[in-house]
Amino acid sequence: MVASTEKDPAIIAHAKTLENTPWCDDYEKMISGVLYNCLAPELVNGRFRARRLMTKYNTHFPDDATPESLLADREAMLRQMLGKLGKDSYMEPPLNIDYGCNISIGDSFYSNFNLVILDCGMVTIGNRVMFGPFVSIFAATHETGVESRRAGVEYARGVTIGDDCWIGGNTTIMPGVNIGSPAKVVKKVDPVPDL
């Protein structure tokens, strides 16, 4: 997998429909799969904002909470954190994200504990999707050369998970993966030779 060389107008147009995006040239490069500087101030601030909201989400459990009030509080926090969140969707804390704004989740989504989403690229999750504990989605990647990594140069590839998928616990989904609708990832998949 190599980085793209041009920005993707369709992805940029989609990002304009999402909430809380850290707009700058490097953001447009990042979501398009072009090499970008992850240390651009707007991106650093975007990750900082996500960390603040994530910490609040992961530790929120008021003494006077009821199951209903806690659910409502967490949904409101997720709406502040994510680019798009469908109805009746819930994520058990702890949740770890890079930006949050590049994550679009459909209706009736459920994630068990310890979800990690490195959303440098667009991460789209369909309707009625379920994740077991310790699922990781990595849209972020980088070149293998040490010089570009030292300079903070990265790129990303979006991840799409279709409707009605079930992703079993301890699954890692790598950059550029598209999981069809419906799918269950619950056992080892035999390797396919590189083409």
UniProtKB/TrEMBL annotation:
Pfam families: Hexapep_2 (PF14602), Mac (PF12464). InterPro entries: Hexapep, Hexapeptide_acetyltransf, Mac_dom, Trimer_LpxA-like_sf. This is Sugar O-acetyltransferase. Keywords: Transferase. Belongs to the transferase hexapeptide repeat family. The keyword Transferase applies. It comes from the Eukaryota. It comes from Stachybotrys elegans. Residues 27-87 form the Maltose/galactoside acetyltransferase domain. GO terms for molecular function: acetyltransferase activity; O-acyltransferase activity. SUPFAM superfamilies: Trimeric LpxA-like enzymes.
